Amino acid sequence: MRKSNLIGAALFLSISTVSAQNIINGKVKDIQGQSVPFASVKIFASENKTDIISEKITDENGLFSVSVPKGGNYYVSTSASGYSDITQNYMFDPSQNNLTISISKEKIAGIKEVVLVGTKKKIFERKIDRFVFNTENSIASKGVDGLDVLAATPLVKADDEGNIGIVGKSGVSIMINDRPVNLSGKDLVSYLKTIRSENIERIEVITTPPAKYEAAGNSGIINIVLKQNPKKGFSGNISTSYTRKSKDGFSNNGALNYQSNKVNTSLRVSQFDAEKIATENLTIFDVSQVENNVRRLDRNRGYNINYNIDYSINSKTSVGAIYNYSNTKINSDSDIFSKYSRGNVIDSLISTKTFNESKVDNHQLNVYFEKKLDSLGKKLYVGGNLFDSRNKNPFLLRSEVDNNSNIDYDINSRYKYQIYSGQVDFYLPFKKFVGEIGGKYTRFNTDTELGFFNYENGTSIYDNIRSNDFSYKEDNWASYITLSKAFSEKWEGKAGIRYEFTSLDGISRNGENVNSNYGKWFPSLYLTYKPSTKNIFTLSYSKRISRPSARALNPTTIYLDPYSYATGNPYLVPSFSNNIELGYVFNNKLSITAFYQKSTNNFDQVVSLDNGYRVINYLNSYDEQNVGVNATYYNTFFKRWDLYTTANYSYIESKGLINQVKGLSSNSLYYAVNNTVHLNKAKTVSFLVNFSHYLPYTKGNFKFENMYNLASGLRISLFEKKLQVNMTVQDILKGMRFKGNSYYSTYYTHSDNYYDARSFNLSVTYQFGNNKVKGNNKKANLEEVNRAN
To answer: What are the Outer membrane protein beta-barrel domain coordinates in residue numbering (predicted)?
Structure first.
């Protein structure tokens, strides 16, 4: 520990003490004094603009920092979408190196159309520390929900069972506007389905997150960025969509936005009602053989209400609140056929019907205070959060065994999650470096009640032995500091360190409990070398943690059928990973990244047979190393054809930590080709064909078989692009089957699951009012929700 602390201290001192020669710190704002983010600032040596010296893009606060060779006279050219370009003379004096640039709005007839074309982003972008999928410009993610958008995002794997991750890597944290949603599994799926694609601006895949972010998520973060509101006035949209899988599904969405000089507010309402059929087949090959075939009908319906308001007290101070409520009901009716054999002799046949109802109510409230501290952009953020989730889950099972005996029971379970958190963040740009410092406290509470009832002769009889309660409390204190510095025009560095201390206590009615305290350091480092405007080299490192969810720690036994049950493990410990990436970007079109990840104490479900029972446990079961390379390429041909391709190769090697888990190694390859063809010059009619393919790969002791997806679609824009009609077909070849084997020391299991991925989607969206208004969306900070399940 001392050694790591000394290294971290030396790192920060080296960054903060290296002097930067001839740095110009500046800010771009409009004539009203409001910051202009993402403006282009170019420094030239002469007025004819032929000899560019430096070029930067302002951050979200309109700030930039550039270096020049020496003191003297320079020309500064500034441009931003929707604003008139400006070029001004600037006499650089190292003792007075602050520059403020004011720009004004364009006054051009038909400016709406010009802005639409000028601000159009590329569908895919590769930035220093993240991959960006701009969903606004992709017809593959129109008229669908948030989970479908993730499934269509390159480098991301997502399905209806809550298996969401980054290609070639393990656990991931899901965030919305830089703030984790703090749900996992089926609860996370339900929440993502309440978000409409019309409200999503982009998806960011962050594989080595900076120290400012929570350390949770072994392989990084998937950040869903919602649309913001940069203009004044009223606007809104309404949309409806129809989805056909094995069953029909419908969804509706509406949004209303308003912004004035003082108030920025948005109201979003969404509703969905859909059905699908899932098939799950599991076979255990041991001394005794078990075949378990499940056909399940899932009926999902629910709605979501989101309200945001931001009030500007003055030009430097604002307060606001964000409230989100979601109500989701999931009814799952399953037909299960189980066959138990010993050798070639059938021991028993079981036919089971289950009826599972789940009603989830989620409330989330964020209140915040923001204050600008000076003209350089120093800023204070203070926020408080409350998350409350209630899940009522009655489960009925009726089984017929071939020996004419019946096994029937009912389970009534209730889950209650509450999370309280508060944080303080400072953003501190100085003349020679930019600093960020902050702290946060989070309290996580969960209470589980499980009542087990044997159903006999039409009467439910309470079973005190199988019933159980579990109470869990966790406190997390965190603090971080980051420093970033431009050493020269070609070299930039950023380093940070985060410390998190966790104290947890859980106890169940049957006497099992968990009690632990631990503190860990999480360093991060970034280095960028830019020899020219077309070539960028990056090096990054971060350490991450993956904490068990509340259900994984819950020792309560959940019966899946008469001879199968799952139980949590209160003795699980967190998993840690170290991630290193070396990247190269050419001309913002080609990106190549080599990566290495080592994770320890990974936990997962382990399936075994115990006296004829199929038992599922959570265990810290394997360590894993992963080395590979990812390449992405984006370009537009003939002004009509947008092409994006990506390929990911990795070598994965795992080592079992317990006797029954067998370590595996494999070479894996994933590739995807995405094509969008604009059928007319105005690009109001577009056609897409996408194909992605996962070749066999391993994760822990599980080896996945081939999986692929062919998708196609059509997008039509009418009435000056206010009305959009989208038609897409996913999984045309029905290749999104999750098949593979789990290998243990004396046995193995085979899985073959399909979750109704083949679908046809038709959606209609209409934008009304001021179509430049996108809706208020401040960043709500709530970090532990993804572990609430």
So the answer is: 371-766
Q: Are residues 198 and 265 both part of a single domain?
A: no
Three-state secondary-structure class, residue 149: helix
Helix, strand, coil proportions of the chain in percent (round to 5)?
A: 5, 65, 30
Please state, in angstroms and rounded to a whole number, the distance separating the CA atoms of residues 784 and 173: 10
What radius of gyration do the chain's Cα atoms show?
A: 27
Q: How far apart are CA 595 and CA 106, in angstroms?
A: 44
Q: How far apart are CA 364 and CA 362, in angstroms?
A: 7
- At residue 747, what are phi and psi to the nearest 5 degrees? -160, 175
Boundary of a domain, candidates 172, 196, 226: 226
Is 642 domain-assigned?
Answer: yes
Kindly list the distances between the CA atom of residue 46 and the CA atoms of 41, 75, 80, 103, 208, in Å, as whole numbers in the listed order.
15, 6, 21, 21, 40
Give the Å distances, CA to CA, from 386 to 267, 308, 370, 611, 653: 19, 15, 18, 45, 41
**658 and 626 in contact (C-beta within 8 Å)?**
no
Q: What is the pLDDT of residues 313-358, one digit of tens each?
A: 998 899 999 898 999 998 999 999 988 887 778 888 888 899 989 8
In a domain, 17, yes or no: no
As given in the structure block, the two tokens for residue 349 are 């046949």
- How far apart are alpha carbons 63 and 29 in whole angstroms? 9
What pLDDT, in 10s, does the model give residues 444-503?
A: 998 989 898 988 877 889 988 888 898 999 999 999 999 998 888 889 899 999 999 999
Question: Which residue shows structure tokens 């032995």?
Answer: 465
Contacts of 374 (CB under 8 A, 6+ apart): none
For residues 471 and 331, state if they share a domain: yes
Residue type present at position 454: N
Question: pLDDT at position 558, please?
Answer: 80
What is the SS3 assignment for 246?
A: coil
In a domain, 234, yes or no: no
- Answer whether residue 8 is part of any domain: no
Token pair 């577009």 is found at 686
The CA distance from 381 to 320, in Å, is 11
Phi, psi of 177 (to 5 degrees): 50, 50
The pLDDT score that the predictor gives to residue 7 is: 40
Q: Concatenated DSSP letters for 484-533?
A: EEE-SSSEEEEEEEEEEEEEEEEEETTS-EEEEEEEEEEEEEEEEEEEET
254 and 216 in one domain? no
Instruction: Give the C-alpha separation, 452 to 787, whole Å.
Output: 25
pLDDT at 132: 81
- Residue among 195, 150, 197, 144 nearest 172 (CA): 150
Beta strand 173-176 pairing with 179-180: antiparallel
* Whether 338 and 277 share a structural domain: yes
Residue with the two structure tokens 């080395």: 627
- Point out the residues of the chain with pLDDT beneath 50: 1-21, 107-120, 230, 771-777, 779-783
Enter the DSSP assignment of 663.
P
Q: What are the tokens at 314?
A: 């003055």
Residue 553 · residue 569 · CB < 8 Å: yes
CB-based contacts of 141: which residues, under 8 Å, 6+ apart? 135, 148, 149, 152, 153, 197, 200
Q: What is the residue range of 370's domain?
A: 240-787
Let me know whether 85 and 149 are in one domain: no
- Total tally of structural domains belonging to the chain: 3
275 and 138 in a common domain:
no
Same-domain pairing of 643 and 532:
yes
Residue with tokens 């920025």: 264
Concatenating the DSSP letter of every residue in 315-339 gives SSEEEEEEEEEEEEEEEEEEEEEEE
Q: What is the sign of the dihedral through the CA atoms of 76, 42, 44 and 483? A: positive
- Of 199, 226, 253, which one is at a domain's C-terminal end? 226
Say if pTM beats, i.e. exceeds, 0.85.
no
- Tokens representing 179 are 């703030």
